[in-house]
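Sequence, please.
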């Protein structure tokens, strides 16, 4: 099988699945899409036509797919977070391997249930932690593995979620209410960051977690005086509020289009009125201070490791700029990196009066912006090796080495709900 293309089925034809399917379009000698399971008829037919999939390999659900004999090597599971486990298990049980979107479970019970099936069937399951393949984080990992900063004492990860991303995904959007999406903001947005932390720490495992955070900004009592309930219907601030649906979405319809315009994606060339009517009907047209969101907009996490090392992660929503930063301090030096600005700075201790440390700046500006800075492509290359029997890279996100990042988040949210009390792993 290593010399023939991996045959894969798309389950859930959302934004992330289609990004991975794009790799199959560009590299049909490595991976071929041979089936589709998707509830939405428009998306289902789009994938069917894109990959010339025969009718007998087109399904409306994971259950319908699981009811027929296995006809591919793997499934690319890009369903919604709360559907991952219920859709993955029946397909793993009949022998499919899987590329599974993160987070792969929304609570510890789901995690344990899925892991039991993976272990029972010896399934190959890879998690879509694409940032391990981003050139910035991969450079940091290699510097640590090469011993350039000695033993790690502390890791500091930071994710600032911009005001437009926060409003689109986590206040008005599908991850804004835990009763609907069944995930916290920390899980939906930052399972990448906590996975990076545990990956960089290697064999040093976390032993306890504590966390605090609140919904600070988007509450009804914080709405500007005179604000209406829907931006385009009854709000006199529609042209001045920084979170106006008109200013964020209607005036810039190509921004976040895969999120905002879900109910008109079947229209080939939407008009201004199509966009406006969509906002009049959807949650994206609501006053951001009067939505049903209940997720935090900022949270801090402290992790203690077995060696005595510590890690912190700070999530802040509503920032001017979306940016992830990373600082790793070791016994021989330190590393600082910025993902979006594409650089890594290494400072190695050199105890001389003139320098104190030797500094090396690694410029990664050549890395493309699209696909998580090359992460999507790197993940798919590794997935093909993983499924086909080749040797995966140091970034490989097998479900077995993706568990601890999820567990940290589950416990962090438990700690936050209990006033920051430390929870042992």
């Amino acid at each position: 099988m290593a010399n023939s293309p991996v045959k894969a089925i798309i389950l859930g034809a959302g934004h992330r699945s289609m990004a991975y399917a794009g790799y199959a379009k560009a590299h049909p000698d490595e991976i071929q899409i041979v089936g589709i399971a998707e509830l939405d008829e428009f998306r289902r037919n789009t994938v069917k036509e894109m990959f010339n999939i025969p009718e007998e390999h087109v399904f409306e659900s994971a259950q319908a797919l699981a009811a027929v004999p296995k006809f591919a090597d793997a499934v690319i599971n890009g369903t919604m977070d709360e559907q991952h486990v219920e859709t993955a298990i029946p397909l793993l049980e009949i022998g499919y391997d899987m590329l599974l979107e993160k987070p792969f479970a929304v609570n510890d019970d789901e995690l344990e249930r899925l892991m039991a099936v993976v272990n029972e069937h010896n399934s190959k399951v890879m998690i879509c932690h694409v940032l391990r393949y981003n050139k910035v984080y991969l450079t940091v990992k290699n510097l640590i593995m090469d011993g350039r900063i000695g033993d790690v004492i502390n890791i500091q990860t930071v994710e600032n979620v911009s005001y437009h991303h926060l409003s689109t995904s986590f206040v008005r959007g599908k991850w804004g209410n835990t009763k609907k999406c069944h995930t916290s903001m920390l899980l939906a947005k930052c399972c990448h960051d906590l996975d990076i932390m545990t990956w960089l720490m290697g064999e040093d495992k976390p032993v306890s977690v504590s966390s605090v955070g609140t919904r600070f900004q988007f509450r009804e009592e914080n709405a500007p005086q005179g604000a209406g309930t829907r931006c385009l219907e009854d709000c006199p601030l529609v042209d001045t509020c920084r979170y106006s649906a008109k200013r964020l979405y209607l005036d810039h319809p190509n921004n976040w289009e895969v999120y905002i315009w879900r109910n008109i994606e079947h229209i080939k060339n939407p008009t201004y009125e199509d966009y406006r009517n969509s906002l009049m009907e959807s949650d994206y047209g609501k006053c951001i201070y009067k939505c049903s969101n209940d997720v935090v907009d900022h949270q801090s996490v402290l992790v203690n490791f077995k060696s005595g090392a510590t890690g912190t992660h700070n999530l802040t929503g509503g920032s001017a700029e979306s940016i992830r930063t990373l600082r790793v301090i070791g016994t021989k030096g330190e590393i600082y990196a910025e993902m979006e600005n594409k650089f890594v700075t290494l400072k190695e201790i050199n105890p001389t009066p003139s320098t104190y440390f030797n500094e090396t700046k690694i410029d990664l500006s050549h890395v493309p912006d699209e696909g998580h800075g090359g992460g999507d492509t790197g993940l798919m290359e590794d997935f093909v090796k993983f499924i086909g029997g080749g040797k995966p890279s140091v970034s490989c996100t097998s479900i077995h080495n993706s568990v601890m990042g999820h567990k940290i988040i589950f416990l962090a949210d438990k700690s936050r709900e209990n006033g920051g009390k430390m929870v042992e792993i």
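The two ends are 39 Å apart (CA to CA).
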